[in-house]
Write a structure and sequence with these properties.
This protein is an alpha/beta fold. The chain is built from 14 helices and 14 strands. About 0% of the residues have low confidence.
Length: about 400
């Protein structure tokens, strides 16, 4: 089988590029030939359409795309392919259900005139243009052979919002690297880890506030808990109109009196990620759902960081944002209501008082990780691809 993969790939620094890179390698290990016709295009929809027009599609059995993360290039490439090749099987992993891309490349006139004006006018324009965007997403989704989500919650929401048939849908959980298990570190001090790209909207401030409350309410725990903030700090994510987000976090840490409890591991090389995760007891992911996206729909994706925790055999404390509740329903962690700092504080307190809970979570995460290694995940993808080809 020869497929074309439409996706960002490393060294691009985002979760979907990492995911696509692992999937590509795992498929090739199974003997699937993988071509990447959009390589070098970046996230330019016009260039993606041009590449579709110029590329040689001879011998391609199926085209698979990774859609999400605010990218539009893959979406428009799929639209161009469907228009050009009516019988070519097209599949996609949808990382941000219940929508495909959530936004248009360009707003129609006269709404386009609002995009350069002061907030909230650009946001108002986006909401007013959303019915057109939703129509285009549904139009493509309904003409895809298979749509794959990482969770059942995402699958249900995508199918309902895009008005799809059950036969078009598939669920394949996020693949994991085959990481050799290691025992938990000594249980004192309890080592907590935030891991992921570090930028606004991840709820990191909630975690800092909860940790500060914890050591104020129970001073004895100050000597028994530590937090590491680790992950990518891509400049376009970490800097914005309001200045350096990293510096703002450091300032907040100083204000809360947490400097002695927090360490940093920024821009980890890929080979060091397992070492850092396994040096901790529990990963904490305090994500909040975007208030802007709530106007357009429900985000029911998952997280590459959660996948890393599973692969490394570590439990998680996470908010109920996205589809996290499903991912932590296997006895591998605890859920709290997003944005509820008091509930997060209580979850941290329970773990500090009963640190052996971390071992139970780790055991379940390790078992789940073995079920989701990329070699098995790629087998599931190959089965979906073969079925899609048979359908067409």
């Amino acid at each position: 089988m020869q497929i074309a993969l439409l996706a960002p790939l490393p060294p691009e620094q985002n979760g979907i590029a990492d995911y696509a890179g692992h999937l590509k390698q795992a498929l090739e290990d199974l003997g699937v030939r993988v071509r990447t016709p959009l390589h070098g295009v970046g996230n330019d929809p016009d260039a993606a359409r041009q590449r579709v027009a110029e590329a040689d599609w001879h011998g391609i059995d199926l085209v698979h795309a990774e859609i999400g993360g605010g990218r539009l290039a893959e979406f428009h490439a799929l639209r161009a392919l469907r228009q050009r090749f009516a019988q070519l099987p097209l599949t996609a992993t949808v990382h941000d259900p219940e929508r495909l891309v959530w936004r248009r490349q360009r707003l129609p006139w006269p709404l386009s005139t609002l995009t350069s004006l002061r907030s909230p006018l650009p946001e108002v324009a986006t909401v007013l243009a959303d019915p057109l965007c939703l129509h285009e997403e549904r139009q493509l989704a309904q003409h895809l052979t298979r749509l794959i989500t990482l969770t059942h919650a995402g699958n249900r929401s995508l199918m309902a919002r895009m008005k799809l048939q059950q036969a078009q849908m598939a669920v394949i959980p996020h693949g994991n690297m085959p990481i050799a298990p290691t025992p938990l570190p000594p249980l004192q001090p309890l080592k907590l880890l935030y891991f992921g790209f570090i930028y606004r909207g991840k709820g990191i401030e909630d975690l800092l506030e909860a940790l500060a409350r914890l050591v104020v309410e129970k001073p004895a725990l100050r000597a028994r808990v530590r937090l590491t903030l680790a992950g990518g700090s891509e400049p376009e994510m970490a800097f914005g109109a309001s200045g350096s987000y990293l510096e703002q976090l450091r300032q907040r840490i100083r204000e809360l009196g947490l400097t002695d409890l927090i360490s940093w591991h920024l821009d980890l090389p890929a080979e060091d990620i397992p070492l850092v995760i396994q040096a901790h007891h529990v990963m904490v992911l305090p994500y909040r759902e975007s208030s802007k996206l709530k106007l357009l729909g429900k985000l029911r994706g998952t997280s590459g960081a959660l996948s890393w925790a599973t692969a490394c055999g570590r439990g998680v404390i996470t908010s109920d944002a996205r589809s996290f509740a499903e991912e932590v329903s296997h006895g591998n962690g605890e859920i709290y209501p997003q944005g509820n700092v008091e509930a997060l504080t209580e979850a941290l307190s329970r773990l500090c008082e009963h640190p052996y809970q971390a071992q139970a979570w780790a055991d379940r995460a390790e078992a789940l990780g073995r079920e989701r290694v990329w070699s098995l995940t790629a087998e599931r993808f190959r089965h979906v691809f073969q079925t899609a080809c048979e359908v067409h």
